[in-house]
Structure formats: C-alpha cells, structure tokens
C-alpha cells in the first residue's frame, strides 16, 4: 500500500474488533468498516514482520504451486491477513467464487465439514490455469476432533481441486494427520519497532482525527 492509498474518513459506526466481520468485505466503502478490515493489508508487501514466511508464500503465489498451509501464532500478527493475501494473489478475480472463508470458532462442528466444505469442494469453478479453490479456516484449532477427522478426509479426497489454509493460535490443537498434510508456518509476535516502522501506520497515527483515535483505543482487543 502506498501512502496515497491511505484515505482517512470519519468512523461513526465502529464494530467490536474481537469478532471481525468476514475479511472479504470490499475495502473501498471504508466509512463503516471496522478498522481491522479498513487497514488490513491487501498484498504481501504490506505485511509487517515474519519476512521469511511471507516471502516463501509469495513464491507459492507466483508459481501457483501452493500446498495446504497452517499459519500458527498469537492473535493479531497477520495470520488471517496473510492467508487472504495469498488467496488474492493466487486467484485474482476468481477469488469471489473460488474461496470459502469460515471462522472455525463459529463453524466448528462436523456438520460444517460435511455440508459447507464438502459442497464447496465439489463445486465446479472456473479458475486460472494451475490454480485451486481455497478453503480458509480461521481459528481452526477450535474445531472439534470429529470435525478435524472429517476435514482430513475431505482434504485427501479433493486434493486435486481444493487447497486448505488454516490459521490457528496453537498448532498443537490440530490433529497430526492434518498437520502432516500441510506446510506448517509459524508467526511470531511483532515488536513495537516493526509496527512503528511501517510508513502507513505512522501516517495513520499522525493524521487520524482525535475522535477516531479515541474510539480505537476504547475498544476491547485480544492480547
Ligand atoms: N503483520 C502485519 N502487518 C500489517 N498489519 C497487520 C499485521 N498483523 C496484523 N495487522 C493488522 O491487524 C489486523 C488484524 O490482523 P489479522 O491478520 O486478523 O491477525 P490474526 O489473524 O493473526 O489474528 C489487520 O487488519 C491489520 O490491519
Ligand atoms: Mg485471524
């Protein structure tokens, strides 16, 4: 994101940050978006920190040869953001039809795997050459064991058409057969210096109207 892309607007309807809306919300209509979406980086270049992992993913995106992945790490370090950037880079305009985004902490049971995920995996979608549909499972470590076993079978069954990208706080809570089918990538916490070094974060802080800043600081956040 360049400095010019940062458009600051009044936020008069801020939603709680702890339960983000689906991240596929269009970024253009920014006035009513929670900040977690409004400032979510759209490309790998704007993701701060964890450079080795991000550049590895950028190679997957360029070659199109992406494995199933698990990104594990503490809250708020860019796991969901990274997965969305990867899906966007791989699929371009097909993103809308070729991505199923689930928050596994709401959709954590076996029925979701049997119904939503399986149905999506079976659907025919027009894709760029060599690309796959992508199922994003946020907070996958909160899925029940039964759901994870079903997921493992679905991963095997549809491996020729569908890739899975899981985000988790704790990868140990994901069953071993799923871990062994994924590249497991670990994100570490960002330092204050890393966050402040990012130009648009600085600009955002300098230019943000006081009212908006007060709203931001008064919101509950995960630690
Ligand atoms: N590494 C990062 N680089 C830039 N922005 C980030 C990064 N990590 C988090 N953010 C900011 O915090 C918000 C939440 O990040 P998210 O990817 O949802 O975190 P996680 O999934 O790890 O909990 C994003 O919308 C983005 O604005
Ligand atoms: Mg997340």
TrEMBL record:
GO terms for biological process: DNA repair; DNA-templated DNA replication. Gene3D superfamilies: P-loop containing nucleotide triphosphate hydrolases. GO terms for molecular function: ATP binding; ATP hydrolysis activity; DNA clamp loader activity. Residues 65-191 form the AAA+ ATPase domain. InterPro entries: AAA+_ATPase, ATPase_AAA_core, DNA_Rep/Repair_Clamp_Loader, P-loop_NTPase. It comes from the Eukaryota. GO terms for cellular component: DNA replication factor C complex; nucleus. Belongs to the activator 1 small subunits family. This is Replication factor C subunit 2. The lineage of its organism: Eukaryota, Metazoa, Ecdysozoa, Arthropoda, Hexapoda.
């Amino acid at each position: 994101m360049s400095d010019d892309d940062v458009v600051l607007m009044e936020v008069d309807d801020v939603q709680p940050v702890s339960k983000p809306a689906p991240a596929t919300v269009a970024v253009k209509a920014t006035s009513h978006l929670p900040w977690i979406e409004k400032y979510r980086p759209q490309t790998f270049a704007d993701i701060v920190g964890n450079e080795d992992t991000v550049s590895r993913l950028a190679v997957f995106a360029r070659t199109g040869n992406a494995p199933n992945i698990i990104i594990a790490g503490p809250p708020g370090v860019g796991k969901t953001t990274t997965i969305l950037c990867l899906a966007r880079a791989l699929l371009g305009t097909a993103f809308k039809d070729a991505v199923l985004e689930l928050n596994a902490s709401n959709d954590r049971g076996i029925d979701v795997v049997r119904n939503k995920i399986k149905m999506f995996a079976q659907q025919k979608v027009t894709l760029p050459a060599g690309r796959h549909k992508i199922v994003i499972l946020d907070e996958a470590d909160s899925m029940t064991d039964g759901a994870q076993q079903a997921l493992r079978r679905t991963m095997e069954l549809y491996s020729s058409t569908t890739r899975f990208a899981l985000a988790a706080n704790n990868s140990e809570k994901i069953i071993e057969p799923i871990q062994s089918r994924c590249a497991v990538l670990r994100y570490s916490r960002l330092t204050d210096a890393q966050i402040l070094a990012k130009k648009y974060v600085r600009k955002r802080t300098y230019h943000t109207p006081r009212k908006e800043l007060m709203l931001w600081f008064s919101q509950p956040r995960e630690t």
